[in-house]
Amino acid sequence: MILSRRTLLIGGASGLLAGCDKLNDSPNFRETLRSAEGLTMRAQRLISSREALAREFDPADRSPVFRANGTRNPDTPDYNRLAAGRFADWRLAVDGLVRRPLSLSLAQIMRMPNRAQITRHDCVEGWSAIGKWTGVPLSLVLDQAALRDEARYLVFHCADRYGSRPYYESIDLIDAFHPQTILAWALNDRLLPIPNGAPLRLRVERQLGYKHAKYLMRIEARSTLAGLYGGRGGYWEDSNDYEWYAGI
Amino acid sequence: MATSDPLRPRRDNQPRTDTGADEIVRRHRLTTRLWHWTNALTVFVMLMSGLMIFNAHPRLYWGQYGANNDHAWLEIGSRGESGYLRIGAVTIPTTGVLGYRVEANGQANRRAFPGWATIPSNYSLSAGRRWHLAFAWVLAIGILAYWLVILANRHWRGLLPRRAELHPRHLWHEIKDHARLRFPTGAAALDYNTLQKLSYAGVIFVLLPLVILTGLTMSPGMNAAWGWLPDLFGGRQSARSIHFICAMLIAAFILVHLVMVVLAGPLNEIRSMITGWYRLPQPKPVTVPPPAPAQAAEAQP
Fold first, then answer.
1. Which of A27, A132, B176, B195 is paired with B159 by a 20 to 30 Å CA distance?
2. Cβ-based interface (< 8 Å): residues of B facing A
3. Interatomic CA distance for residues A246 and B284, integer angstroms
4. pTM score, two decimals?
5. Given an 8 Å threshold on Cβ–Cβ distance, is A125 in contact with B221?
6. Do B67 and A65 touch (CB under 8 A)?
7. Model ipTM?
């Protein structure tokens, strides 16, 4: 059999491609790739202060339309009932490793000191939108609930589901106490619309969009992410192997 | 025989006579060769996993923000059973390649770039990111180390064109020679010509640093750490556009580079990048030139 140069080239190239796919399917290789995530997180934290702020923009810099992505309406019976009552019966539970578990109404949260910030929202897909968010700094809520010493992570339990799986996300205490980390109840000076996460969503401005959990129902302080759902700290982390540290 | 110290500068090695007719000289340093093959792998992984990431949102914008409702200056998409690439107001049909194709199993595929161009070949943004963000470390550490080495061993001088070489008449002369595939022979082949210098220096000192910096600019964490990054490029979406343009230019460089290697004699060229030893190309008339030191053989017509 005579191998033409073309056959060799195409054969070689598709062999390499098949090799990449095979590597991609290998758990060991993926674990190696995954180790870059820890390296990236440590490197970013090394060169930036804990308080380093995300850029804040002028009102004129805002996107004309703020794109909503992911779940646009949880559309569960419970959520629909809450939305029909304009979230008057909605409560945010703050529990887990806290000394004073809380149950906060939307009115109570809106009466707390608030912070407004015009920031850029970066989706993992590549697009960005700029909008103004108003909400209570998460640190104030955590101070009220008084975290126990063992608490290391905050888990955000959401009202939306993907099939049978509930959406959830988590951050560590460095991001939780960052001054721009807020529980937002308004977008562009209007109460948070349902596609953007009504009645309350997380803003964690130094990370990608999927970390900004929408439709918040419960904040749980934990010492570890192991043992919760898939154990990787978030819906997309569990189901699709997205990075838990989404600062890049 | 020349010594086998691989870090010894090329000029210190006298051309060595192999068969009596061909001169074989040490051409590439060990550091150059190591960096070359590390990059050959890394750049391919970066390009192909990058195209996978692009497939998640095949639109590019200028400025701070940009999403589906905003104006994209570049877009790859599909309408019905045809694919297209739109740049500004110009729409180019790309059915079968970009935006739309029918797979071997008969299924329509509307991803911007086809599976043979992406890592992994089936759509997975998260896997593409895992590859891209892991190999980005290899690329960045590699070029940093290479810069330090060529600064220390002064190899960078051979990569930057001299002033006289940038004269338009000289450049035009070289372009004509290149287009006629008339390559230098003998010891003159040891020096990079101006076009080579411009493209190698362009990749090493412009494209690679740009692609790394614009990559970092897309990171919200890095934006908070180094606020000057988005300022430098006019916003995150501009940085994303420049990142893509640089990647395409690097791909174009690789294509031309591979064609030139094939035209210049692939076995000799590839061997020189593996072992370091390079056989000097002989002029067409088979008169054996006297074995002169490299500098003295400059007298080319």
1. B176
2. 45, 48, 53-54, 56-57, 59, 61, 64-70, 116, 119-122, 124-127, 129-131, 133-134, 136-137, 218-227, 230, 236-237, 240
3. 59
4. 0.89
5. no
6. yes
7. 0.93
